[in-house]
Amino acid sequence: MTTRHRLSRFGKTLAPCLTFLAAWSALLPATATAATVSGGALIMNLNRDALAAAVSLDATDAPSIYLEEFFDAQAAAVRNNAQILEDHIVPGVGEIPATGLEFAVNGATVDVPVGRRTKPTTLTFDPGDFAGSVTGAIGLGGVSRFRIDTGSPSNRIVSGDYTLEFDAANIDADTGQSGWTLYNHYSFRSESFNLFNVAMGLDPNSFTLSGELGVGPGWEHFGGTVGAIVGDFSFQTTVVPVPAAVWLFVSGLAGFGLFGRSGSYRA
Description:
This protein is an alpha+beta fold. The protein has six helices and ten strands.
């Protein structure tokens, strides 16, 4: 096949697609925007006395609950379920500080260790209408291991592999509960912490949150007082624009081969 014939055949394939795309893109709002987030971290500060007071299980003179071990995103990413339960970064089973716990924002893809449920970041939103447009979740790397005073050796509680999610239905002006929740995914999905009295900052480059940590319903099965304030948090990440919908659609068409395949017009 000659070069002229190859170009002619390619043009016949491309022209209808471009005509359709032009008509379709004309229907899109001129100001349609979208964004996601990348990098940054959530910093958790637990008040060890408030946390212990919020948990009713207390079989001995030891605190009802305390933080025994913390695996940041890097340490958690290389440990499977059994290692999270057994490994010690700090020797022994005593209490460690529960402040400055850093949970890094995961990327759009994650490697999930055996027996774990680490989650990617899937959040998208229109910066001009965050509450009305936000979908998906922010995946966070890191896992906390607590000791709870059950009076038996099987007293470890693990919380982590979080997602940070927004749902306007959770807003309660009377209590200060925001629409933001930290969901635990370690072993199973549960509301680990509801976020209260949240201040949110959003501009073209950054997205921030700060506020208080309240015990979520996921703690009820071992005597947690839902809504009890047990610490505070801060969160900061970078806003990243998402390509306009029309270009995403063009990319999808190319992926289906509508613009031809390499080597399909050989002489």
